[in-house]
Design brief:
This protein has 751 residues and is an alpha+beta fold. The chain folds into four domains: 169 residues, Up-down Bundle (Multidrug efflux transporter AcrB transmembrane fold), CATH 1.20.1640.10; 154 residues, Alpha-Beta Plaits; 110 residues, 2-Layer Sandwich (Multidrug efflux transporter AcrB TolC docking domain, DN and DC subdomains); 101 residues, Alpha-Beta Plaits, CATH 3.30.70. 50% of the residues lie in helices and 18% in strands. It contains 26 helices and 19 strands. The strands form five sheets. Strands 5, 6, 13, 14, 15, 16, 17, 18 and 19 form a nine-stranded antiparallel beta sheet that branches. β10 and β11 form a beta hairpin. α2 runs antiparallel to α18, α12 runs parallel beside α15 and α13 packs antiparallel against α18. The longest helix has 35 residues. 30% of the residues are buried.
């Protein structure tokens, strides 16, 4: 075989080849993206439409149903899910694996353009495309006041965060998006006086129309004068509240009626629809998500640098500070470091075993050389295939550490046998490798054939475990090349000039001889009796099946890991408002407060059994809330679950799901099971859903179940029914009455 012969005769070429593989493999190792789990390509397009002040029923009838009618025929669509809530509607379109997300986004956009007759005051739909694998935030930041500035109202700094921090984070290479959660949005309010409006016979719609029509800048052409050309613009856009108060609503018999006569204008903040709390205090949160394929470790380094720049500059001058309360890379570094250590330990143990049995340092050195060459070369192959380093790919390499030495052991042992036959080093190295290369090839192909089908599975499981197949197949294939090139070359130079007979027999030799004699004797006696042969076969098969049945662990799709994050989803009883949800959060904070206020090394901490809380956040919005808690000791995070559940379970009607964040969060659903109930009658569905929910709690009392979105029709509703005859007499329509009621309740948005 030319490959073996050339490797023995040209050792310099082999060494250069090994060095090149090592060099490019190390370069690939430092450039390949690092993340916790593999990318799972699940094309998803999300459409969100906002209509301020609209009820869920209005959102569904006027927006969602019209969008669904056009989008249901999009090519490749597998599932379409909609959700309608107060002032907001969303559609999630899931497509088949392998489709181009950009092309799908274009198709959905074209279909969406065919939807007409949106409500006049509804916002334009916003589209977003994703793959379902990188939508979770990699970091969460909290804005707090510095010591000595506690009187600062943090919630009024939302605009500040959006303009400074959010845009600054999005400039960090690898950050796809940043979002600000919490705080108050600034707005210009017109506070009407209903009595004054009635006295001046002015309606809300008249005033809104007057204010809206005056708030405009209009291009008015141009003209030439001398050598200059002038652009003409009519400037009417408001810059101060006083300008709004000067707007004329109408000119009646009693004179001009201005906004100031029936209302007053002021700069203020929107009424909050949700709130964020951090360790018992109001806060504003900012997160960041990474781009697909970005190295999360490098992205996080850029985010930390940006945080330091913010805190040392404008935030410090204003008495504020950004604190990082969640960093995904902490767990990534821990998980990947654990797998990496397992690889090193596995390699060391393999070396030790070889040293014990071979009792030759040179032989062990020759064989162990195959481990780093194969593993480093695998990094190069994974980089060329566009893969990344994650716990799955590193697990595959950990599996391969013990497999890559197999071919080297076979080759070296056969070369040693030929040396024992009296051949010189050159002939023994060549004959020994040539004689077994077919067997090594068959063994390697068998291993690759086991993992190869995974590469052709396109669904989630195939994408998730593809890195194991690539890592094991690549390393084993490289080990075959090493066994046919490096091992003969090194054997030629590191083995002695002649075979040295062993003096005496070692303990291992005597043990091996004894085992060999026992096996030979047993086989001889068993072969002589047919009933005995059948009995031995039945006994072995039965023992194997019994062992499998008794020792097989519980089956699970994906491991949960031990992430230092406990999160909870809260669904309160119908009718809960934002203040009630805040009180629920305060009850949880009161239960956990002692665990974050004490120092870890204090007697108070010992009294709490050392189970402390490093961070806690609570977000209340709409008709739900969620929370996140991190333990001071990451290994004890799961012990916090009952401490969070106890105050929640004491609230009648509260549905709470509290669990530890999984290693593969968002992939495969973890340990959750979804039961979907569909039909044309929402009331009937809610009743059926309630019965299913009750049955689940009876059959699985330890399971945590929650309805999505809820098992009720919403908050109690007060309906205003116009008297059309009386409304017509005073010149009002049902729409104008609705706008008036909206303005007097939550406030109507003019522009």
């Amino acid at each position: 075989m030319k490959l073996v012969e050339s490797s023995i005769q040209r050792p310099v070429s082999v060494i250069v080849g090994v060095l090149l593989v090592a060099l490019f493999g190390l370069i690939a190792l430092y450039r390949i993206p690092v993340q916790l789990t593999p990318d799972v390509d699940r094309p998803v397009v999300t459409i969100e439409t906002r209509w301020s002040g609209a009820s869920p029923e209005e959102i569904e009838q006027e927006i969602i149903q019209r969008q669904e009618e056009q989008l249901k025929s999009v090519e490749g669509l597998e599932k379409m899910t909609s959700e309608s809530s107060d002032s907001r509607g969303s559609l999630v379109l899931e497509f088949g694996v392998g489709l181009d997300p950009d092309a799908l986004l274009l198709k959905v956009s074209n279909k969406l353009d065919q939807v007409t007759d949106y409500p006049v005051d509804a916002d334009k739909p916003v589209l977003a495309s994703g793959s379902g694998g990188n939508t979770n935030a990699i970091t969460w930041l909290i804005l707090e006041a510095l010591p000595g500035y506690e009187d600062i109202d943090i919630e009024t700094h939302r605009d500040y965060l959006e303009d400074l921090v959010e845009t600054g984070l999005e400039r960090v290479p690898g950050v796809a998006q940043s979002n600000t959660i919490g705080g108050f949005d600034r707005e210009l309010q017109v506070i009407v006086d209903p009595v004054a409006m009635a006295a001046h016979a002015v309606t809300v719609t008249q005033m809104a129309a007057a204010i809206n029509s005056e708030n405009s800048n209009t291009s008015a052409g141009s003209f030439d004068e001398g050598k200059r050309r002038y652009i003409v613009r009519t400037v009417g856009q408001y810059t101060t509240p006083a300008q709004i108060e000067e707007v004329v609503i109408r000119d009646g018999p009693g004179g001009l009626v201005r906004v100031a006569d029936v209302a007053r204008a002021r700069l203020s903040y929107k009424a909050p629809s949700f709130t964020v709390r951090q360790r018992g205090r109001q806060a504003i949160a900012v997160n960041a998500t990474r781009e697909t394929g970005a190295n999360v470790l490098e992205v996080m380094d850029g985010i930390r640098a940006a945080i330091e720049e913010f805190n040392a500059g404008p935030l410090q001058r204003d008495g504020l500070v950004l604190r990082q309360v969640y960093d995904e890379t902490d767990y990534i570094i821990s998980a990947i470091g654990l797998v990496r250590n397992n690889i090193f330990i596995g390699g060391a143990l393999a070396t030790l075993v070889l040293l014990v049995f071979l009792r030759s340092a040179s032989s062990v050195l020759i064989i162990v050389t195959s481990i780093p060459i194969s593993i480093v070369g695998t990094f190069l192959i994974m980089s060329l295939m566009g893969r990344n380093i994650n716990v799955i790919s590193l697990a595959g390499m950990a599996f391969a550490v013990g497999m890559v030495v197999d071919n080297a052991i076979v080759a070296l042992e056969n070369i040693y046998r030929h040396r024992q036959m009296g051949k010189d080093r050159l002939r023994a190295s060549y004959d020994g490798a040539i004689e077994v290369w077919g067997a090594m090839l068959a063994s390697t192909l068998t291993t690759i054939a086991i993992f190869l089908p995974i590469l052709f599975i396109e669904d989630e499981a195939g994408q998730l475990f593809r890195d194991i197949a690539i890592a094991v197949s690549s390393s084993v294939a490289l080990s075959l090349v090493v066994a046919l090139t490096v091992i003969p070359m090194m054997s030629m130079r590191l083995m002695g000039d002649r075979a040295r007979p062993r003096n005496g027999a070692s303990i291992l030799d005597r043990f091996g001889s004894s085992v060999s004699r026992v096996i030979s004797s047993s086989v001889y006696h068993i072969s002589g009796s047919t009933p005995l042969r059948i009995g031995v076969v039945v006994l072995l098969i039965g023992s194997s099946l019994l062992s499998v049945w008794s020792l097989l662990p519980e089956a699970e799709y994906l491991p949960t890991g031990n992430r230092n994050l406990i999160f909870g989803i809260l669904l309160p009883p119908p009718g809960y408002n934002l203040d009630e949800l805040i009180e629920v959060g305060q009850q949880i904070e009161d239960a956990l407060r002692p665990r974050w206020e004490v120092r870890p090394d204090s007697p108070e901490a010992d009294a709490l059994d050392g189970l402390l809380v490093s961070h806690m956040f609570y977000v209340a919005r709409g008709r739900s809330a969620f929370l996140g808690v991190r333990a001071g000791d990451p290994s004890r995070a799961k012990e916090l679950i009952p401490l969070i559940q106890n105050p929640l379970f004491a609230i009648p009607g509260m549905i709470a799901i509290v669990r530890q964040a999984g290693l593969f969060q968002g992939l495969g659903g973890g340990r959750s099971i979804d039961v979907e109930i569909s039909g044309p009658d929402l009331g009937h569905l809610l009743g059926l859903g309630g019965r299913v929910f009750g049955l689940v709690r009876q059959v699985l009392p330890q399971a945590q179940a929650r309805p999505i979105p809820s098992l009720d029709l919403g908050n109690p509703e007060v309906r205003v029914i116009p008297d059309r005859t009386r409304a017509a007499k005073v010149g009002l329509t049902a729409r104008e009455i609705g706008i008036t009621v909206n303005a007097l309740m939550d406030g109507a948005v003019i522009d």
